[in-house]
Design brief:
Blueprint: H1 4-7, H2 11-23, H3 27-32, H4 49-64, H5 69-73, E1 75-78, E2 81-84, H6 97-110, H7 124-127, E3 130-132, H8 150-155, E4 157-162, H9 168-179, E5 184-190, H10 193-206, E6 214-217, E7 231-236, H11 243-251, H12 270-279, E8 283-292, H13 298-307, E9 310-317, E10 323-330
Parallel strand pairs: 4-5, 4-7, 5-6, 7-8
Antiparallel strand pairs: 1-2, 3-9, 8-10, 9-10
Helix pairs in contact: 2-4, 6-9
Length: 333
C-alpha cells in the first residue's frame, strides 16, 4: 500500500481531518490529547475506543489508496461554507475560488455598485491578478421552486453556474451577493442526477429559502432554458482534463467521476467549445462568460471566445500562481 505522503500533498492535515471524524472529537481535543490513548479523549467513551480506532485505520487505508478526504468525511469547506460531498460528485477545490471572485467582481460591476459602498466585494477587482488581452475590446426541470416577486426578478441580475456539481460555485455566489446587497437570481445546471441531489442538499442546508439557487437538470446551458430568461453572467468549472490525465488519475485510485473530469477532444475542450457556442444565443448584451480551465488551455479558449464574438477577454491566476480563470464580454450583434 502507498504511503500517505505519496498520494497527498497535505498528509498531516489529512490525518487530523480523518481522526476528528473517526474519533468524533474536535481538532482542539485531538491536538490537546494527541499523545494520550484515544479512550482518554473527553468526547469518547472507553468502550467505543476499539471501534473508533478500527474506523480510523480503515479510513487511513482508503486515503492511502487515493480516496479523497472529502469523500471519507462527507464534507469540504469552500468559501467559508461547509459543503456536503459524496462519491460520484466532484470535490470543491481552492483553485476554483478565483472563478468565484471573478464572478463577484463582474456581478458588482454589472449591478452598478458604488465604488464607495462598503460591502464584501468592493476591493475584489483591485486585488485580482488579472491579465487583459488585446482582443477588440434533455431532461430539464427544476428540482426546487420558491416564490419570487415578479418586479424584483426583472431587476435582478441573472446568473447561471453550468456543471455545478456539489453547487459550491452557485451557492457561494448566492450567499455572497446577498451579503453584498446585490440583487441576483442564481441558477445552476448539471447532467448528473447524483450531483443535482447533492447540490440541492447543500442548497437547502446552506441558504435560507429566499436566497436559494434554482437548480436544473440537463445539457450545459441548454438546461437553463426553462428559466425563461437570458443571462447576465454565465460561470462554469466544466470538465477539462485530457484523456491521459483521467487515466493517470484513475490509476491513482481517485474516486472522482470521469464524467466530472474528462473534457473531451484531444485538448480537453469539447464541452467548453459547446458551452461557448450555446452562450452566444443566451446572453444579454454586455453579459460575461467566465470559465475555469488549465493554464495550457487558455490561449485556445481565448481564440474560441474571440472567434464567437466575445471581447475584453481577461485571465486571472489561482493561489498557486497559475492562470485558472478566463472570461469575456458578449456584445449583441
Amino acid at each position: 500500500m502507498p504511503r500517505l505522503s505519496e498520494v497527498s500533498d497535505t498528509p498531516l492535515l489529512d490525518v487530523i481531518l480523518l481522526s476528528t471524524k473517526a474519533l468524533d472529537c474536535t481538532r482542539e481535543e485531538l491536538l490537546l490529547h494527541g499523545n494520550k490513548p484515544i479512550d482518554e479523549l473527553p468526547s469518547l467513551a472507553e468502550q467505543e475506543a476499539k471501534a473508533r480506532l478500527a474506523t480510523l485505520e480503515s479510513m487511513l487505508a482508503r486515503r492511502c489508496e487515493g480516496t479523497p478526504v472529502a469523500y471519507l468525511i462527507g464534507h469540504k469547506e469552500f468559501r467559508s461554507l461547509d459543503f456536503s460531498v459524496e462519491p460520484g460528485v466532484l470535490v470543491p477545490r481552492a483553485d476554483t475560488e478565483i472563478l468565484v471572485e471573478v464572478a463577484l467582481a463582474e456581478a458588482s460591476r454589472l449591478a452598478g455598485q458604488s465604488a464607495t459602498k462598503e460591502n464584501v466585494i468592493s476591493d475584489i477587482r483591485d486585488t485580482l491578478d488579472i491579465h487583459a488581452t488585446s482582443a477588440n475590446a434533455s431532461d430539464t426541470g427544476d428540482t426546487n421552486a420558491h416564490a419570487s416577486n415578479a418586479n424584483a426578478r426583472e431587476q435582478s441580475l441573472k446568473l447561471i453556474d453550468v456543471c455545478t456539481g456539489s453547487g459550491a460555485i452557485a451557492i457561494s455566489l448566492a450567499a455572497e451577493l446577498a451579503e453584498a446587497g446585490i440583487a441576483a437570481e442564481v441558477h445552476a445546471t448539471d447532467l448528473s442526477p447524483l450531483a443535482l441531489k447533492v447540490a440541492q442538499k447543500n442548497n437547502e442546508q446552506l441558504l435560507p429559502e429566499y436566497q436559494r439557487v434554482y437548480i436544473h437538470r440537463g445539457d450545459l446551458l441548454l438546461a437553463g432554458d426553462k428559466a425563461g430568461c437570458s443571462w447576465d453572467l454565465v460561470i462554469s468549472n466544466p470538465p477539462y482534463l485530457l484523456d491521459e490525465e483521467c487515466i493517470e488519475i484513475a490509476g491513482k485510485g481517485w474516486g472522482e467521476p470521469d464524467m466530472a473530469l474528462r473534457g473531451g477532444d484531444c485538448d480537453g475542450l469539447a464541452l467548453i467549445r459547446r458551452l461557448i457556442e450555446q452562450a452566444t444565443t443566451r446572453l444579454n448584451n454586455h453579459a460575461i462568460l467566465a470559465l475555469e480551465a488549465a493554464p495550457e488551455q487558455m490561449d485556445e479558449i481565448e481564440r474560441l471566445l474571440c472567434l464567437h464574438g466575445f471581447t475584453h477577454i481577461k485571465r486571472a491566476k489561482d493561489l498557486a500562481g497559475d492562470e485558472r480563470a478566463i472570461w469575456g464580454q458578449w456584445n449583441t450583434p
